[in-house]
Structure formats: structure tokens, C-alpha cells
Amino acid sequence: MHSHHLDTWELPAWALEVVEEWDDAEADDEARMQLAIDLASCNIAEGTGGPFGAAVFDRVSGRLVSIGVNAVVPSNCSHAHAEMMALARAQRDLGTYDLGTAGMEHELVTSCEPCAMCLGAVPWSGVRRVVCGATDDDARAIGFDEGDRAPDWQESLQSRGIEVVTSVCRAAARDVFQQYVDADGSIYNSRES
Amino acid sequence: MHSHHLDTWELPAWALEVVEEWDDAEADDEARMQLAIDLASCNIAEGTGGPFGAAVFDRVSGRLVSIGVNAVVPSNCSHAHAEMMALARAQRDLGTYDLGTAGMEHELVTSCEPCAMCLGAVPWSGVRRVVCGATDDDARAIGFDEGDRAPDWQESLQSRGIEVVTSVCRAAARDVFQQYVDADGSIYNSRES
User: Are A124 and B88 an interchain contact pair (Cβ–Cβ within 8 Å)?
Assistant: First the structure.
């Protein structure tokens, strides 16, 4: 499925090309989501991981701060979900573990609603807004497991001052899951092995 | 608080000395927990992070596979909890994202019950057993936030075939929290900033 090992949070080589084509100007939720979806789609086409993409944006300037793709298999790390990578890379590049410190305001855009791990990581990361594409039901429909989350996870985040927006470009995000199934992609679920 | 930057999953230098003194022979849950607690205690004394330690053991041989300490501040990464580091390092060293594959059987020993993120990471990691020291209430008592977890998280893990044992050496684990408070340690809670 993949040709070489990646370090944790290391992007596959093709991802830099996707970023080069990105234009911050006048991007809205849909445009930002399309970037996350493009990352997920390319990740399938390039054979570098699962069908998930994410990005962190500066909410003040609109600037793209970081991107992430699912890299569980090539990085040999079950933490390497797209959201985790995007958050970790943003924190590393900005030199802080808190993306909400010192007047900064960031948002996470993810091609699919976060699993239990990524959801738990969101408040610690300091982001103030989460934008989701495909729903957890969409992920489950192709065999991925979102884990055991609090049923009221959207309200939980909102009660922490984190805005949640769901089903942005959902149909396009879901199409990527079908692309993965058609490509005979691996559904890695450790606990079932 | 810390003297230099750490890469994600990088151990502080002193941690290697703790491992060198470790003896697998005849170790039981209490001895393994004491290692996790020692890591948490040293992490405070050395000023390299929060009061949390963890380790992964091979359940078949009893071998210590990896260790982790909280390194959120020195690594500029909010994912760098002790459990996440121990799991990631075990996966990296063994060359697999699934610690339960190919006949392997591993357990995670952590000085405190996992937060929402680490709890979500457990099933994906492939470990088959989780041993906890201090309780979530103990962590909350000194101001740490465990996040929004499913209230029946122990049952959820067990329903996935992951054994959970809690309150092993709880008093000693809790003492480390008090050590942290006495040392005027930082309680980093991004969402409150």
C-alpha cells in the first residue's frame, strides 16, 4: 500500500503540492473543506493512508497553517489520524501546545467527524472551531469505527467555547469514502484483529 | 520549567536512566505501576512536564517495551500525554501500528486514568489491558481536566476485549500529584486560557 516509512506527523511528499495550489483569499467553509477532502482523496490515490484529510486555519487572517492526512499505516502509529497530524504540525510550526493562546484563534477543518481520540484531543489543542464534512455514520457505513464518544459530543465542545459545524460538503466527503472502498483500501481496526 | 525543546515522543534524557534500572524479572502490576509513578515523579523533579508517566509491557514475556511521560510543554504538542508517548514509542520500536497483531499481546500501565484523548487512543493501539493508578477524580482534584469521556468507559473498553484494572498503587500515584502542586507545577488547560 505504501512505499516507504513516514515519521510521525510527516506528510507524504505529494501533500506539499496540494498546499502550493491553495489560495487563502476569500476561502469560506466550503472551500476549506474542499481542501481537506482533496487531501483525503489524494491520500487514497497515492496509497499513503486512510481516506481522511484535515487542516488548521488561522481564523483571524484566514491563513492555512497546517494540513494532515491519515498516516496510520505508513507511520506505524495508530495516533496518526488526519486531525492529530494537522493539530500537531500547527503547534510545532507555531511553537506552542496551545493554538488558542496569546490572541491566536484557530479552527480545525476535517473531512470526517472526529473519532473518540481526535475528539478528546480537540479541547487540549486550543482550537476554537471545528468544521466537519462526512458524518460518523458515513464512516461507520464503510466499516470504520469512531470509538466510544460521549453522545452529546457537539454540545460538550460547545460548552467549552468551541464552535462545531457539521455536514459541510458532506456528499463530496462521503464520495471519498466510496473511492476508498472501490480502491479496496484497508479498514484497519486493531481491536478486531 | 524546561531547558530545551523535545521532538514529539522524544524522551527527556533522564528517562533512560530510569529504564536502565528496571528489572522485568518477577514484576507484577504493582511493580509496573511503580515504574510509571517513578516516571511521573521524576518528570516533576526534572521540570520536564506534567505529573504523568506510563509504560507498555509485553504481556507474554513481561518485557518492558516502552515508556512515556507527559511532555506537552517541552514538545509544544498537546497530544504528548504519557500514554500517547508510550503507545507511539512501542509501535515505532516494534514497527507496527497494532500492538495486538501477529500474536503479540501488550498492556498499558499508566499512573493516572486516561483522559478522553488517551482513552480514545487505547482501542486503536491494539493493547489488550490497561492498568491505572490515580483516578480521574484525583487528577481533577488538582485542577487537571480529563475531558468528556463516556461515563461507562471501563465497560466500553472491556466490551472491546480490553481488560481494565484501576486504583493500583493509587495512594502513591496521588502523592505524585501533591508533589506537583507543591512544586508549583503548571496546570495547562488550553480551553481556559
Answer: no
Chosen for mutation from B7, B10, B136, B148 (greatest number of chain A CBs closer than 10 Å) is B148
Residue B118 in contact with residue A147, Cβ under 8 Å?
A: no
Whole-number Å distance between alpha carbons of A183 and A160: 39
- Partners of B131 in the β-ladder: B109, B165
A136: CB partners within 8 A, 6+ apart:
A112, A113, A146, A149
Answer whether A123 sits within 8 Å of B162, measured CB to CB. Answer: no
Q: Can you give the pLDDT of all 193 residues of chain B as single tens digits?
A: 445 678 889 999 999 898 888 888 778 999 999 999 999 999 999 999 999 999 999 999 999 999 999 999 999 999 999 999 999 999 999 999 999 998 899 999 999 999 999 999 999 999 999 999 999 999 999 888 999 988 899 999 999 999 999 999 999 999 999 999 888 766 665 444 3
**Residue B129 is inside which H or E element, if any?**
strand B129-134
The Cβ of residue B74 has, within 10 Å, a number of other Cβ atoms equal to 23
Q: Which helix (H) or strand (E) holds A88?
A: helix A82-94
| Pairing between β-strand A64-69 and β-strand A53-58 as defined by DSSP bridges | antiparallel
Q: Which helix (H) or strand (E) holds B109?
A: strand B106-112
Measuring CA to CA, how many Å separate A82 from each of A67, A114, A153, B34, B140? 8, 9, 19, 35, 29
Q: Can you give the pTM of this predicted structure?
A: 0.94
10 Å Cβ neighbour count for A22? 14
Closest to B186 (Cα-Cα) out of B98, B72, B95: B72
A118 CB near a chain B CB, below 8 Å?
A: yes
From CA B78, how far away is CA B70, in angstroms rounded? Answer: 9
